[in-house]
Specification:
heterodimer, A: FAD/NAD(P)-binding domain, Cholesterol Oxidase, domain 2, 2 domains, 6-stranded antiparallel sheet, B: 187 residues, mainly alpha, 9 helices, 51% helix, elongated
Chain lengths: 514, 187
């Protein structure tokens, strides 16, 4: 087994990894970034396609009875494949209570994150979409809200020179989407960070020969070894003074839970209170007086977001433009039932609906401040996802769906019959959620009883072990999570650079380094 | 509807007899391969049946049968190993409904009836038919995987720039509701 050493080992290469890679490398530390998925040469690796085998190179899923999570394995993490919508979390998100206590640490709020949102937005070139680039489906959604006296905002995106190809989720072949490949990753490399792809970290072990100590100057002698394997099954051992977990909410939970026996003091809260942004999705047919939408033209996220119900219902409302593969893989769509029969989700009925899909179907969804009631746990080495469908969650689902339905109906549009399906095409329960916005598998907290890391991102009781990805964010935020993950990672990184005036001293035992 | 030969009828009866023995034991029939050998060995028999299935799931697609049955021959997809059984079951149900065993000779309307019977059968059979419908739709609406798109839903498969203004409306301002945020963000 090869054994290597580095000052800082970052596990994962997405939004949570980007900031520490740049900031710590620029501060003069030896930084190594490990990515489990394949290398991505952006934009050359991307394709405009609906070929499932292309997506399966990068997309991964984890499914429970009532909740499914999607995430990306590949250099740059989700940044290559997300819809590039980049929004700040509303203040309300940071004020959520969970069982009577504040979900977020007292020192982390929209106000304290705003300077780091500024940095993240500058790095990604986040700009509000110009009026003349809002796709037709977004305009139709906005007019629906306007008709009812509701507010709606033009959203912000990480993009330069968008052509509106509509293939954000398969990667932008024009390099317009400002994924991490065009900013953070090259800058970190320029500062000396080394990226290695196709390498999975499987275990972290705290080296026990030295008592970890935390001081104001640095993490002192805290150190870890990380067992890894590559795609060919070859083993590697990394030793690092500082380990930063940034493999995403799912990946970080898997690694921590698999390492529990080697990480004495790891919080019991890991994997226990996972948030999922409460996505409720619906579809409708535009009424005859409505202008066409367009599912296939313009950027994937159609430009508009409504905060009108954030205070009253705890949700934002947005339109969506699923490409055919996404729509069919996610749901059985039926025309509204008629008196004599329920329409089929296949055959002639479905063909009739899909012929109208591009122009006359409008998809609305809500993201909500739902409580962190999902769990990730390891059972015989396999990561399991569970969701407690509480009465509160059922009420949220019912209330939110009714709200979305009312927007169709009050605008003279007809809600479609939508039944969500699992990866085999079988129907899911009525109350079920899918998300790419999973958060909080190792949440920040003021006390070890309620979370895995402290507000500075450092694991309670495990000095030198940090979490900077979505796993550290304690609750749902009702908007896309990428910018908040990045801003929080910038905040933690700034704290690290400020705090670690002393470089970590690596102690490599005899025989290592072969 | 074409009439069956005596031999075909006997085979179909044998299939039904086997089905009776294995009633309530569809997983066993699949796992142990308890279905007529001809559906395991004769792709000339199986392929038209699966193409006919796809033709009923996405009727009027106008695609050739090789494309239509592609998901059942693709090793990356889960029904690859079950296509023989699926074809046998479709023909068995065809016999039960229509007293002839060639699913591929049925009209689309009658094929729908047979597929409905599979979707209403025991759990394993229902899952198999649900998966077959699902995969067929996935393949079709993803343009059979390639960049060709899907003309039936006006999907190009890849971006082809249109004239200026085709992505939005020239009077976009008139569509906009009152904003409440700053730069797209809510405080």
């Amino acid at each position: 087994m090869d054994s290597m050493e580095t000052d800082v080992l970052i596990i994962g290469s997405g939004f949570g990894a980007a900031a520490p890679a740049v900031r710590l490398a620029e501060a003069g530390w030896r930084v190594t970034v490990l990515e489990k998925g394949p290398d991505i040469d952006a934009p050359g690796s991307f394709r405009q396609t609906q070929d499932p085998s292309y997506f399966l190179q990068y997309y991964r899923g984890l499914t429970g009875d009532h909740l499914g999570m999607t995430y990306i394995e590949g250099l740059g993490g989700g940044s290559g494949f997300y819809e590039m919508i980049s929004l700040r979390a509303p203040s309300l998100a940071f004020e959520q209570k969970d069982r009577g206590r504040s979900l977020w640490p007292a020192t982390v709020s929209r106000h304290t994150l705003d300077p780091f949102y500024d940095i993240a937005e500058e790095m990604l070139n986040v700009q509000q979409i110009p009026v003349d680039e809002v796709p037709r489906s977004g305009l139709v959604f906005s007019r629906m809200m306007k008709n009812l006296g509701y507010s709606c905002d033009r959203a912000a995106y990480a993009v330069r020179g968008c052509l509106g190809s509509g293939f954000c989720v398969s990667g932008c072949i024009y390099g317009a989407k400002q994924s991490l490949h065009f900013n953070y990753i090259p800058r970190a490399r320029q500062a000396g960070a080394v990226y290695r792809t196709g390498i999975e970290a499987t275990r972290i072990r705290a080296l026990t020969e030295v008592t970890p100590q935390v001081s104001n100057e640095g993490v002192g002698d805290a150190r870890y070894e990380v067992l890894c394997r590559d795609v060919a099954g070859r083993g590697y051992m990394y030793r690092a003074g500082l380990v930063i977990l940034a493999g995403g909410t799912v990946g970080t939970a898997r690694l921590l839970l698999a390492s529990r026996q080697y990480l004495s003091g790891l919080s019991a809260a890991v994997g226990r209170r996972v948030a999922f942004n409460g996505g409720v999705k619906t579809a409708g047919l535009l009424g005859p007086d409505w202008p066409d939408g367009d599912m296939f033209s313009g950027r994937s996220h159609p430009g508009m977001v409504s905060y009108h119900f954030i205070e009253s219902h705890g949700v934002t409302i947005q339109a969506a433009k699923p490409l055919p593969l996404q729509a069919i893989a996610a749901a059985r769509l039926r025309l509204p039932a008629e008196r004599d029969r329920r329409r089929r989700y296949w055959g002639a009925d479905h063909m009739q609906l899909m012929a109208r899909y591009r122009r006359r179907v409008i998809v609305l969804f809500a993201l909500g401040l739902t409580p962190p009631t999902a769990r990730l746990r390891l059972a015989n080495g396999v990561l399991k996802l569970e969701l407690d469908v509480t009465d509160e969650l059922r009420r949220y689902h019912r209330r939110t769906k009714a709200l979305l339905t009312s927007i169709y109906e009050d605008n003279g549009c007809r809600p479609l019959d939508v039944e969500f399906v699992d990866s085999t095409g079988n129907g899911k329960p009525e109350v079920s959620f899918t998300t790419a916005h999973q958060l909080g598998s190792c949440p920040m907290s003021d006390s070890p009883a309620h979370g895995g890391v402290d507000p500075a991102g450092e694991a309670h009781g495990l000095p030198g072990l940090f979490v900077t990805d979505g796993a550290a964010l304690p609750g749902s935020i009702a908007v896309s999570t990428s910018l908040t993950i990045l801003a929080n990672a910038e905040r933690i990184s700034e704290g690290l650079v400020r705090r670690l005036t002393v470089r970590p001293r690596l102690v490599v035992s005899a025989g290592a380094g072969t | 509807m074409d009439s069956m030969s005596r031999r075909e009828a006997l085979k179909a009866m044998g299939l039904l007899g086997g089905a009776a023995l294995a009633a309530g034991c569809t997983p066993g029939r699949i796992v142990f391969g308890w279905y007529p050998t001809r559906f395991k060995d004769d792709d000339e028999l199986v392929r038209p049946v699966l193409a006919a299935l796809a033709g009923a799931v996405v009727p009027g697609s106008g695609l050739d049968e090789v494309s239509l049955s592609r998901p059942f021959y693709d090793e990356r997809f889960p029904l690859h190993g079950y296509r023989g059984y699926l074809a046998a079951d479709l023909c068995e149900r065809t016999w039960v409904e229509f007293r002839q065993g060639r699913f591929d000779l049925l009209t689309v309307r009658d094929r729908v009836r047979v597929i409905e019977s599979g979707l209403s059968a025991d759990d394993t059979t229902r899952s198999l038919y649900t998966g077959a419908v699902f995969l067929t739709q996935l393949a079709f609406y993803s343009g059979f995987y390639g960049d060709a798109g899907c003309p039936e839903i006006d999907f190009d498969g890849r971006f082809r720039p249109g004239p200026p203004g085709t992505r939005t409306y020239p009077d976009a301002e008139t569509y906009l509701a009152e904003p409440v945020g700053v730069g797209g963000n809510y405080a």
